[in-house]
Specification:
Distance between the termini: 47 Å
Low-confidence stretches: none
Largest sheet: 9 strands, mixed
CATH topology: Rossmann fold
Strand content: 25-35%
CATH architecture: 3-Layer(aba) Sandwich
Mean pLDDT: 90
CATH class: Alpha Beta
Length: 246
Amino acid sequence: MKFLVLISQVPDTTARIAFTNDNTQYDGNGVTWIVNPYDEWYALVRALELKEANGGSVTTITVGGADCDATIRKALAIGADDAVRVDAQPTDAYGVAAQVAAYAKDKGFDVVIAGKETIDHNGSQVAGMVAELLDLPYVPLASKLDMAGNTATVERDVPGGVEVVEVNAPFVISAAKGMAEQRIPNMRGIMAARTKPLTVVPAAPVETLSSTVKFELPPAKQAVKMIPADQAGQLIELLHTEAKVI
């Protein structure tokens, strides 16, 4: 069973948020970059678990520049067999999906798996677009994935319960919380990652369908107004005149 796991580089969750170039780009100066948690904790780890149980291989793919290599090496340290980096700057979800699909279309992957979203954009678009471009079945927001030969049993949370579906490989899936538990790279894995293959491939001629016009920070929080307990009338007046329901 050949797994292809999509790996995105994202800012650490504690990173400051600022923008540059007239508020059209995220300012990454001084930011610590990490593997997108949904890609790492759920998609990659579950692929590794299934490989360990049933045999096969796990390849990661990332769309980005050379600055992503250290992040990719972490995925290799966790246990991926090899990695691919498409040498293109990710501009929008379609561009990323098209680059992934262009690489994967003739490689014979049985399962393409990604985290349900990236923590910087929260778009939940790339995996579905990859499935469409490869003309493969797609199961989104999966919380459980089991394989029996060529058939996968997938569970996903739906309003009011859990939906269980079966799908035959090849297919694309996006992983949500519950798919697996986080793995911490050990020293052996870190050392092995230095020599595992990281193949850089040129970008495919892909059309960009969207662009960022502007980023805006949310309004700063205002100071809290304390109203004495015996002045309920003032509180009611402020609720009518100043309070906003978001």
